Fold these 4 entries.
Entry 1:
Amino acid sequence: MKIIKDSVHDHIRVDGVARDLLDTPALQRLRHISQLGTVSLVYPSANHTRFEHSLGVYHLACEALEYLSIEGARAERVRAAAILHDVGHGPFSHSLESLTHRRTGRYHDDVHELLADGPVGDVLRDHDIEPATVADLIAGDGRFGQLVSGELDVDRMDYLVRDAHHTGVPYGTIDHGRLVRELTFVDGELVLAEGNVQTAESLLVARALMNPTVYSHSVARISKAMLRRAGERLLEEPSADVDANALQRMDDHDLVVALRSCEATAELSRRLDQRDLFKRAVWAEIDDVPGGIIEADHESIREFEREIAERASIAPAHVILDVPSRPSMTESTTRVMVNGEIRRLGQQSPLVEALRAAQYSQWRLGVYSPPALRDRVGRAAVDVLDLAIDGALVSEVRDGIDATLDQFID
């Protein structure tokens, strides 16, 4: 048994299969992958890693299993899945997933493959655990997979509290102790027990508040977009000799070195290293953006960027178009017991529609460029994208938003 002091859960006791997995290369690699990608450029203390998050998920899984009275081999499989759930993540967490998905068809490295061979597979088999079964649990399959990956998973419970703690933003603080205690299975579905509608709402509200404040903060989005563009150029550069599969298995440090060493990515790498970031040339609300742009695929986005650059008479490398997916709220499907029947939170809580409306109002399309070019780029983007805003007012509106945000954080 090993006891680890954690910044969020205090002391975490690690034993059994999890203790033997702790020092495998696949798990130790997570020490070098930041939990929040480039968010530390906004919140300097947000330097926590996927490794400590994995420990937190394991800890909450252990508590949930205890309250659910699940023991023996089934519990050990869930504990293994909990501590291993992030081993497939690439560098800077979610930042490059869309890039690698276009080339490999996967958002993460193949967890089934990672767990089957090498030290992780050896440890699992030493404990009479089939690696494929653990990989299925990580994917959320089956009754107990819901604990690891689902609407009420311990992954979400840990990352909200941990991200709030390390950013200093209090909105993600939830009563994870009660959430874990009130979990139960009804007809094979993981639900919150009777009388916990407000408990489920707290999870929903926390995620809704953390999204614009942390996960989709404008600086985090700009730096993430720049990192994606650098990663794309790295994969397109023959001399770099890096493919999407190799990129998925890098850690943050590997990627930074690769970007610094490649001539095609050196300038973007320098900007990220020195926080010399692009600025918002356009920051448009969803009602001002034609639907065809929101639904556009990657190649169409790149063509829009080229057209904007041509209209502004600048190099295409100086334009990044950042189009988020339409707002969604996975947590609204959380299941709660109400008057003896299972109900979706979205059907039960009046908060859900209000939070959906808030998400809708917070959605922004971004066009980014070097500071000296953003007025030209902004006007060109309004014309090319046919945005329902006055190009002459882009600079004034954007500067007003910047001034307001600067009252709170850079």
Note: The radius of gyration is 22 Å.
Entry 2:
Amino acid sequence: MHGMRLADDVSRAVPEPIAPMPIRPLSVLTALLHAYIALRLLPAAAGLTPAWPIGLLALVVSALTIPLPFLSRHAPRKKPLHAVLQWTGLLSMGWFSSLFVLTLVRDAGLLLTWIAQRVAGLAVPWDTLRPWSALAVFALATLVSLIGFVNARRTADVKHVDVPIRGLPAALKGFTIVQLSDIHVGPTIRNSYIQRIVDAVNRLGADAIAITGDLVDGTVPELREHIAPLAGLRARHGTFVVTGNHEYYAGAHAWIDELRRLGLQVLLNEHVVLQTRNVRGAQNDEETFESQLVLAGVTDYTAGHFDASHESDPQRALDDAPPLVHTRVLLAHQPRSAPKAAAAGFQLQLSGHTHGGQFFPWNLFVPMQQPFTAGLHRLQDMWIYVSRGTGYWGPPKRFGAPSEITLLTLMPARG
């Protein structure tokens, strides 16, 4: 295994900025939105069921607890109260998100119905429509949140993806890479969750393992014991990691040191050359080069905002790469790195960051920031695979965007 390190941690001693969470504006905003939901739903539901105060109580609890995960950052980490505050607030956040969206959908539907009534003279049973639609909003938000919770907390399924590479040497046919992405070890993702992922990955017997960023949501002292199972990952050529934007929020330099201490290889605008076959007795250099693969990694697309020496650069990651090794794979956290990666001559980019939207309706907004949301796509002569993520961020909730452990297999392209 051979590589060129091209990004020095020259500012290791400089503390990295962490964007402060504006707690007071957040609390005011969420309280106002909860009040809006209460005004739109509770009077209508009161006409249908005497149990409407349960909805009011749920809204009050939600409004009061959503800020708690941010406030509890200052609580002693070992106390059970800290975990309770984190879990309660994040569960409320997930439920409220669906409730708010569904309330807007209900209001839009009622408005369109009113317009249709005025224009076409339709007979609308408002006394039935208003209360039942309000009750349906509460029921659907709760059901979606329960299903989303189960989806988020289970161990991700293995998704098999064949990637057709033009001109792939015969020696690299069937080369496998397991991709993990966006695990977000933090308030609700802990040691046992990570151990289940490690066990599932090791059963696959991959040639290499790639972790494409956003591994953590917290500092090294907070999460060291929970990230520790990653030291047990096993693949023929090892485990390779690139930074995501959340690593920089949490202190990237300390995390880079910790991951290397665990035996993982962090690629910072650099590459390694993997010798995939035993070339002892090779007849010529071409036979040797055709059994090699360049695996490169870049820092997060936004890393330069945190540390100028970590400016993401796919071209720089190939400096001094053997020119006769044409099979080149890039690990880049954000899909936005793809245009520069294609221009640099990579055949495949592995990314994450989007979570596939994680749960509706946020998947509809991902294309506003990223060129690809999930799955395998083509950009010029390069493939890009975007993982929906192996964990989750924030609310323990996945709906319509299941988590995944991705097993990618390189195959020769036909035709």
Note: Residues 39 and 227 are 44 Å apart (CA to CA).
Entry 3:
Amino acid sequence: MPDSTPDASRAVESKPRQRRMVDLAPLRASPAFARLWFGGAIAGIGAQMSIVAVGLQIYDITESTFMVGLVGGAALLPMIAAGLWGGMLADVFDRRKILIVSSLVGWLSTLGLVALSTWDAVMLSQGERVEAWPFLVITTINAVAATISSATRSALIGRILPSDMISRAAALNGIAFGLTLTIGPAFAGILAATVGLPWTFAADAVLFTAGFLGVWMLPALPRIGEPVRAGWAVMREGFSFLKRAPNIRMSFIVDIVAMTFGRPYVLFPALGATVIGGGALTVGALTAAGAVGTILTSLFSGPVARVHRHGIAIARSITVFGLFGLAFGVIVAAVGVSDFTAAPGWSGIHWAALITLGLMLAGMGASDEVSAIFRQTMLIQAVPDQMRGRLQGVFIVVVTGGPRIGDMYAGVLATAVALWFPPLVGGIAIVALIAILTRVHRARSGQTFRDYDALNPVP
């Protein structure tokens, strides 16, 4: 296993061999990382199936886009608390143990969704439905467990891989994430349309076992340095570090901007039912389309190891993300004023609209993945190991809480105005805010976020 001392984890990257395709060296260098990566990819497919299935289940019960958006909104505050507290725990206790406990809680909550969805199917056969709020409660528990797991998993990467492989590992994680977003939603759409939602949730519970095996086989990962007591003092220390880390703060802010104004996913059930047609099939296809871009970016991620101006790369990629989101809104508006009549099933789909919207989502996925690779690399290289759990906790709150704010934003505006309005206005807001924030903000050194250089990783 590579040296896990703070100095080794913060080493400057060696000059990598030039290549175009993704670099698999991290999988060969660390068996622990390889097991965690493969297991996480398989379990992630199931998790994405449940995410899509919950949206379909609640829309089926309530026929309300606002209620679908509330799935994310209801979990927001608990996730913020879980991310901050869980990140602190990852800096105090053995990270392997934290990951095992949080993973088991997530699995139990998935079993709860299986039971609740099955009960709704029984009630439906009798002409009644269960309430939507139990799904919100169980989904919130699942989101809290996933937040703690994600923060801990990200914090330990610097302990099982050398520093010169962090950006390449981030690209590999992008492939895994892209596969989960491609296969999971597609399978969810197919299973929901054929065998029903209870079996869709059950598939997630089964696939969980692969991810848990990778977690269980991790080596012990206790805290480096003197032991500390978990509590508010440790959390305040993390916030104090973040206050002195302008580049890390800005990486959080720009991602919040992108995820708040560039999340059209909550609109998919309504688009499949009223605009494009196809119902659950369209929801699965649109959700998977964004992951196609993520996978393509990661597959051709060989050059990322040679990029060191990470601030510029992040700013440009998020700007492109916003432009694709704007185009998505324009296309939805154009289809909405046409004379097309949406209907369930393959024959009721507006195929031209589905394909063009899929291309826009692929572009959003590709540009978002570029940003994610460099933001995650920055967070690991510029932050000492003793602080990574707490900073990863804040990071996870941003990357999971931001989309939930975005879901609420899109759900409210779509209900108040039209389905095309949130992505169109959001795309404009992203482009404008990124241009302003990344140029105006300056650290004490006088440098802007765009000046960040991985050859001298200053938080």
Note: DSSP finds 16 helices and no strands in the chain.
Entry 4:
Amino acid sequence: MVADSDDGAGPSRLLRTKAAVLLTSVVAVLSVITGIVNIGTVEVTGPLAVYIPEAVARTAGFTGAMTGFLVLLSAYGLRRGYRIAWYATVVLLPVTALQGLAQSSVFSYPLVALSVLTMPTVLVNWDYFTRPLDLSLTQLASLAAVLGVQVYGTVGTYALREEFNGVNTVLDAFYFTIVTASTVGYGDITATSQFGRLFSMSVLVTGVASFGVALGTLLGPLIEARLATALGNMSDKQLDLLENHYIVIGYGDLTEPILESLGDRQAVVITQDAENAKRLRDHGFEVVTDDPSDEEPLHRLHIERARGLIAATNDDAQDAMTILTARELNPDLRIVAAATDRENVRKLRRAGADIVLSPAVLGGRLLVESAFGNDEPERVVEELLDDGDRSQNE
């Protein structure tokens, strides 16, 4: 849903990107289905049948199913706006098309055609998928540990292949490492010596430990995110649809009046206080629970596509940090701030706010004008805004 857009560029762009994600998802499903169908194929059919050996076609069926799962993962990344998912999709789509040709089956024709059709759709929307994949040092270390165990087990098993029955190739060694580290242990490959058993134990222990740590570090943040959603956060799907929206920073005395004044315009509040987030959510407002001065949550809110940002908490220092970050991420963003202390008006302007108002000054001026019998408070507001613009230009 795109609210209050000045032209059709926003909705049309969003429609194109959604089409790219949808087509990629369909390619993934087709790749999995055709791969499974062709795994059990006993004969090769189609126009390329005379050129494709049966073994190659069946292998392409197996790898096609695997590629389909990878494309499905890439489609999920595209939906989140990740740049790395765009790169992966651009690489995988030609692979799915080639695998469809290698399978040389009538079931593969739709896969080939759709892969070719999806490629330009993904390419023309390259500038939309700009979100970086930010992994913590702990997550990177856990992934490196999993990869290291696989390399250690594969190289070690192949080097000690005389100590194992059934290990003749690197693929055999990799297979043994996978089934051992994952604790599956089919028993078709076993150590034939004490040294081989000791090595198998080392692969088992390090594999289980690395998998356990990786699951904790990678899935932990996802579980926390889901719990945060239950407490009032917007879902990832809702965040991906944000366009021409307003970002309201923090929670203060003015937050709810601001949201009510925005009316039907699309607005999102970002606050660190879970209780306030829950309260706003209960009143029907969209909320994200996070630190508004950090870059990552502002990226999640698609600040590059936002129409404006409003900073009106009771903490001018926090507002200034948020304004600095927002201005750096989107130099063209319209930023409006409310200064709790009147002496901070200039500081918030220097931080990057386009307009800064002091509710205390504004309220006092209106009360005085009303006491003098002035029945046109709108004129006073306009004068204050004009004064603010002149001060900013100075």
Note: The chain has three domains: 9-123, 137-230, 236-357.
